[in-house]
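Hey, I was hoping to borrow your eyes for a little while. No rush at all, and the record is pasted right below:
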Amino acid sequence: MDGEIVRSYPYRSACPSSVWGELTEGAGQDIALAGYTNYFLWLDQPAYVDTLRRKAEAGCRIRFLIGDPEGEVTRQREAVEDVTLSVSTRIRVTLEHLAKLSEVPGVEARFSGAADAVNHVSLSVFRFDHDALVTPHLARGVGHDSPMLHLRRQEEGGLFDRFADHIEELWERGRTI
């Protein structure tokens, strides 16, 4: 099962932005971005709105699962992190960019359900077909300071599938933005 680990990074921010770009470009069927805020993608990936629009128009399903900027877990996480760029602000950055994709068929977005928010805020999973980037969030750190694993699906029921199932479970109980 550990054969599915392509690489580990001591920090999410240590993963080169080129990896994110290559995984996005290489995906043809399913991109699921289930970070609680996802805001860094818009900063790290040039013209990401255009890239995602092009991918969706080519038939790739693109899903965003984000936290509710008004939710209790968001407020709690803001108190824990205690940083200037608040969790709710980072979510709103994503909402602003998602608005530019709202009319694109194949692009969907949901808030995680209130009962699932605590599970969502503690684990970010970004899926690109058979690759995934997974960030378990450490107690008081912000996402970019948390470790990250790059996984590639090799077998049924492996690490990749377990994290992909996490996205699906949260997605099913989420609510449309």
